Batch of 4 targets.
Target 1
Amino acid sequence: MSSETLSPSRASGTPDADQWHEPALPMRFLLWLKRDPRASISLLVLVLILGAALLSPWLAPHSPSEQNLDLILAPPDAAHLLGTDDLGRDVFSRLMYGGANSLYAALLAVIVALVIGMPLGLIAGFAGGWVDQVISRVIDTFLSFPAIILAVAVTGAMGIGLTNAMFSVGLVFAPQIARLIRARTLVVRQELYVDAARCFGASKARLLIRHVLPNAIQPVIVQSTLLLAVALLAEASLSFLGLGVQPPDVSWGSMIARGYLYMSIVPEQMYAPGLIIMVTAVAFNALGESLRSALDPTMKGHG
Amino acid sequence: MNARVSSHSPTDNATGPRGANAGVRAEDLTIHFATKAGTVKAVDGVSFEIEPGETFGIIGESGSGKTTLGRALAGLLKASGGDIHYGEHTLGKLPRAERQRLRRDYQIIFQDPHAALNPRMTILQSVMEPLEILKEGDKSSRQRAAREALERVGLAPEIGRRYPHELSGGQKQRVNIARTLTVRPKFIVCDEVVAALDVSIRGAVLNLFAELQEEFGITYAFITHDISVVSHVSDRIGVLYLGRLMEMGPTGAVTDAPLHPYTQALLSAEPLPLPGDQRDQRRRIRLEGEIPSPLAPPSGCRCRTRCPAAQTRCAEQIPEWREARPGHWVACHFADADGPPGPVR
């Protein structure tokens, strides 16, 4: 057979070699934000919250620990945009200062969970056999504890404080991540393209990093953003129990915990920190969902 | 075969593994899988030799073990017994590093062209990957090689920017071929390579394989269930049934004058482009029932449960693998140089 019949598409000619490269990463990022309004809005919200938190020493109208005992549990007015708490401290300023601690706490927990959970899950799923058995049984053991009890126990053992508390929350999350990625790895390692790469002599590390990880990580990205939201709430619980931030430091969780004491008189004390936790959590989730579809080439254009 | 006789020791071979003859020989090859239900004897004592530059067709029904055999030939599965020889090298006895070096010469192309490509890698990344693994050249030379390979298989190099799901089945199979070509293999297992493709493009892809064989002197093991495909491309054919070879010989001899009743039945199952009353009704032999489970293959001759010529001896004795005609082997008690036994009734 002549080669003409083989190559209907060959006529289109050889392209310029430089056109082969995808646009640079920052450009692709901007394109993504332009295409996906959900991503750009949630990112904007998160940047605003983070910016307010980081710049709070300069932007906040009051110090977070400045007490005005003549004005406790006051409703909002011009001087105190969101009113004052039970010690007469400005709620708005505390919200800004607390953001830094809360976001730090949530990120720390999720990063700890990913750093511990991902390699464990990948190795368990890819290696199989007794390695999988051992890792999976350890994961099961951790999952059998009620999460908050485990976190309390670990924090108790490591010492009270926000970093320790969130580290233990990360430990509690890690089995979830490990399990998720193990399950995906079990599927992906059977894929034909893994065999194909193996046939070219690819090392185990290469198979894991180039082929298994990119195809197994999707649910983990989404789960991480969900966990960020859960971690915000876990921080609130642990701070409520007195294991997290210690006064005079402030976090959103500790503000809710404090507001809770006056729930029957002034329930609006919990509105501001509760609302900001919710907005942050929703933004994280939306960003995760957008990220997932952006990272999946088969979903491009369906976004 | 001649080349193999001339040098028995690997050390004679100054060029190392590459440059050695690319013939492939299976010697009493056995592949068993342990399952909960028992041991599946997917391949159970198969011996044959594929000579350099030839196309060896392996034909069998689903469940005959042909895919397992193909994966073993490409080094993806370990033999439970027997061994595979790549030229002078015995696969099971090679040290790991040596095996890794040999591996590039012995490749496989899979049935499902889509599943064989990583959905998260662009076509160019996929085609470049083998060279990356082998650490050959730098990034730009790999890109050049990948683009050349894409062109060689009849694809526009621009296709490299796309992702697998944006391509048609035929294009994807060409991409798989291009990827394999980048390592310049000597032997390729083609595992049902056209089965997943539209009939309209099968011919073009088969011709591409033939062209590449001529151009690069590649040896093929062509695995398929489709007799028309296998007789079109193969020099010799082996007929596999329940993990064993039933018959093996030159393509013309096997398709025109088969020795084994099973081969005869397979051939007569091939649809003829003729109206019913013009077909040769005597040639029509129907295979009854399904292929038995490889968990518990029938005693004696594995074919006997579906063979029209089966007799009591077939249940008691495993037929000998013998050369009934020169170069034409068969495993049947009653076949002789004149042909297969007639039906017993």
Target 2
Amino acid sequence: MSAKIGEKSNGGFATTLKNSPSTDEFIKGLWRDNPVFVQVLGMCPVLAVSNTAENALAMGLATAFVLLMSNILVSSLRNFIPKQVRIASYILIIATFVTITDYVIQAISVELHKSLGAFISLIVVNCLILSRAEAFASKNSIGSSALDALGMGVGFTFALFCLGAVRELLGNGTFFGLHFFPDTFQEWIVMILPAGGFFTLAIWLLIFNAAKARKSEV
Amino acid sequence: MSESTMTYTSPASSAKMLRAMVGIGIVCALLIVLTFEGTLPRIEKLRAEALQKAIFKVIPGITKTGTYQLNANNDFVAIENEETAGEIVYAGFDDNDRLIGVAVEASGQGYADIIRILYGYDPESQKIIGFYVLESKETPGLGDKIEKDPSFLANFAGLDVSLEDDLSSVQNEVVPVKNGTKENPWEVDGITGATISSRAIGNIIGASTQYWVPIIYNNSKTFKAPAVTN
């Protein structure tokens, strides 16, 4: 279902007919087709790893990197991959870049790898990445696909960061590990737990939908 | 065979599919191997550093450490390359090459997954003197209190693991107890809201000390301080 939404909102003919890369491919992922707030894709990492701003940022960047690399490769191989085996090929390409990301994060910091845990490997099944490969990269030039991936990646990172910042601030009283409130502040532990992820996501979705509704009214 | 009976996209031949999958597979495998080889030295270095840091945390007041393996004669011998195979402990010494404590790695089932910990043992006072969680996937905000909760960590400032008079076993095995009911120096006070995780830590240390403490105590003379400071 989620893949369908992705297809609908960006397989739109205005973008598929164009061959030269345009800034619109980049801009649309940031706001109009934001992968989290509008398409509501890839909810598993969004809810699980957005408990602190730092984790959210790291997860967003890791996903954006995989998205960018797989989009470029899928797009450059789009005439080489037969239609019947395309999904298998995409998964293979995505899994490769996820494994590479996993090693790179381990090489950057053991602590970071510890806190992201199993969710790095789960980028493989993030439907955002597969939907971009299937709906966009397999039909568009390398340049457009790279721009599309960058936009979606930045949009995803931005959304995760929005959630992570709120949850860390309320649930832990800190922001990037820096204490923000006086010692008397009682942390809302629920915000760190999965339930808090749902609350925060709901509030952000509310804000986004309210903004969209107001825009269409005018 | 007329044109109209054909599907709108002609099916690709098996050879084409095979070529695409094998081709992509080889390229992907190559990329992974290159990254693995490229990052391996740094990952190993970071892991070793993290372990070293943990050793300094669990044995306060040391200035150098060494890695030791128990050989067939029940002697602890220093080893250079850290192979994971075999039974390994880490000893910490002060500036005068005096043995301050021994760090032991232990693991066991927690709430979510295996918890790996490191604890420091002081043969002189026969006490656990430090504790650190190396790896855990416990629930954030609840189970992971085992890493941060100050009153829980206070358990490990001096946990009694004295040996029986015949030096063959620990007098009172370390046991986890309910929060606020700790009465004896060998009990681990649990955490409310992290019951399973904190009990797991008590049991891991209980089982591990039952095995290691007699061995380390009886052979603590065989630890020789490393020549160079690391």
Target 3
Amino acid sequence: RIYPLMRVTLTTSDGASVTVSRQLTKHSGFIEKAITDMAVDDNAVPLSAVAVDVDDATLKLVIEWLTEHRDDALPYPEKTDEERRADDIPAWDQAFVQKWDTKEDQQQTLYAVITAADKLDIKGLLDMTCKTLANKINGKTVEEMREILQLECDFTEEELAEIRKENAWCEN
Amino acid sequence: MPSNKLPPELWYRILYYCDHPSKCSISKVSHRLADVVTEKRGLAIGRCRNRGITLPSDEILSLSFENPDLPLDTKVLKKHNPFGRCISLSPSTMNRFHVEENYGGQAFIGEVVRELTPLERATIDFVLDYESIGIPRWMIDGLRPRIIVSAVLQRCDGAGTRISAKIGVCRLDGMSQPGNFTQKARTL
């Protein structure tokens, strides 16, 4: 049983401490497992600190998302391949990600949140952020993708020539 | 964190939501992403095999993934049916054509054919709606096939109506030709 008022202290990779409600952490498979492994009394307030390999700034974003989604049903419904779609991101989530677009390092923030969601095993957040990145690159050219993903072309001239040949074949 | 630091497992999850032409483009962004896409392809193929779904030969699969707009050889695809099931056309002298698939039921793509005058020919092209006959979306996204069923009716003078049919398989050219998805009838 989860006590909604119970709180958990999380220590981040950069040494910060954040105390959050169990109502939020129940969505994180990683934190729930850590609490179970500690075998502590569920009534202990607050629990011993759970170390998470996520920096403070990213954890704050994760907590913001968890707060909005605190009442989401658990376990997170796994979708079949046929049911997967990228255009069903809830409006609040879209606005949440949109806020990062004002930041200079919007892509970095997105990667950081994807990685944090994976590490903390928050399936809903992981799905939403992966869809967001997929939506950004779907339908783009190779050059546009490099720009979005901030990647350098590391193909050799010979490989590029081969790619051009392939593209010509497709375009014809 | 640069995108190329994302582990392959996370890229696989992102690729779930990318369409096939985009996956092909991603494979041309960098060596690492090319490796991720290739591995993803391997995973998809493995999943097909685990489900007992017959796949085309490796050469055809490779060709298919590397050239999303490339038409595939009809005979080869009919022989190595990517769906692991026989899709056959059953023309009849009834005024409806239908396509049957031997996997627990029929998929009707019927078209009422109007009465033809003697020696008149009509060609009717159908485009199969894969999902309506139970072929999973992820497979459609992966292989992007399009099967066009073309039926020809010919009423021969005094010899009844002669019906012949053929089935063609080609790759989707992106999704940029919506006109190809409409069924049409014309008189030759």
Target 4
Amino acid sequence: MNTDTYNAPKSLNRWQSIALGAGGIGVIVWLVGYLTGNEEEALRGWLLGFIFWAGIAIGGLGILMLQYVTGGAWGVVIRRVAEACAKTIPYVGLLFIPIGLGVYKLYEFANAPATDKIIAWRGWYMDPPWWAFRAFVYFVLFSIMAYLLSSWGAKQDASKDYEESAKWLSKATRFSGPSIVIFVLLVTFASVDWMMTLEPHWFSTMWGFLFTAGWALSCFCFSVAILAYFSDKPPLDRVLGKRHFHDIGKLMLALVMVWAYFNFSQYLIIWSGNLTEETPFYVVRSKGGWGAMGLALIVLHFAFPFLILLMQDFKRKAKWLASLAIFILIMRLIDMFYIIGPSPKLGELKQHLLEVPFRVTPWDFAGPIAVGGIWLFIFIWHLRQRPLVPLNDPFFENAIKHGKGH
Amino acid sequence: MAEFDTTTEVVVAAEKVRDAGFTETDAFSPFPIHEMDEALGIKRTVLPYLVFIGGVAGLLIGLGLQYYTHVVEYPIIVGGRPHFSLPAFVPPAYEMTILLASFTAVFGMLFLNGLPKPYHPVFNVPRFNLASREKFFLLIKKDDPKFDYDETKAFMEDLNPQEVFDVDE
């Protein structure tokens, strides 16, 4: 079968060092913040970074399973990048430790007085130890899925003939179908546990879907940036073609729309319901600096990428698509900040604030850089361990031909 | 009109036809040949732009219709909200966008293709029925500016086809 090795280009080593350096500096700055008495602000910054980068990693698992189920040339070229994202999940679990240990300094539900009937009614389910154990379970299940899929991918790479390769592919495909259902349920529970609890009296039934779509979008944009980086360097310049980026661009467009659709659904339901338990979430977020940020998100997270991605020529140019992908990633980070930033800090809940001053701290920058640097280091390490494409996949040759089409 | 046996032959021939400067041409095959657009020098369709205009028109009509009925013509207070309540206007405006965009796509496609077309001279060639089964055909129309019956016929014979037909009108 295939004789090329398709190993990652050497230039990746430099990026790995840069990531580690940035991560190290981020961690130091973050620790300075944490140790100088800004524990809550620092933890919020860490949560921001965690939820953004964990979204790429966990989204990677979702994309990996999705492409096994749907098939297609875009899946063959994106598979190893998504797989490397998914394989970082156990380490993402380690990056969760500051949040798990800091639960009493970060979340109101962990400190609520017994007089807070809404939180008291939730009983043992929202006890911090049980909450932390659930997070452990999510990471274990995600990791098992990622481990199984990547080990079958490795066996496929080592397979000697067509039948053996096709056998591992069909195994991964049959595993992915039912696992996607479990995956979406896990994402729903995880996003409620980690993010919705920042607003302990508030709830939204769109939350899980919002995060499923958002994380898939994050991982897609991240993968586009990685693939565009590879597209003009050996060995992948032989593989990646215009049509691959065209296909992936179309899926990016779809995910941008799905994100907007879920977000607007949530807004419309709360707006038309007009209930006192639900509306404060948007009342707070539509005033002052937060309001401007919300409008900016509508324009820059939806309208602008949507209109740009409608253009066919734009999607076919790897570097252009990658620039937009990185832009959307920045918007994803701001979107997460838009959820975390205005949420009540400890003790603010009982004040029933309808206006929160725009607050951004240095740790909101240090957190994402710290988590991101460490995560990218681990991601590149995983990416380099394997060929960048599933070179013995039965559909590999077809996928190359497809990309080179007009 | 010339008949060919394989996709490769018809694509190579189409490239020669394009390079010879013919513009009023057409190709027929049992399945889509992705290279054919380029080989025959077919310009990209304007349909996407029409669909975009259709969508924008749908959006504006959808918003305008609701604004007119809810704010101008029959203002009535619903749920204590202002007459102009944008969130409530979005779903119908969105549906109008999709409706007009897809109408433009379907009917625009039919119009740009000149469909429905009850009569086309190529069907006067008996073997043309094979275009829906296994054969490939290239057509040079007589209103092409470079068309000259004898020269064009000789040119087509040189393309290495199975057979060259005259198409009666």
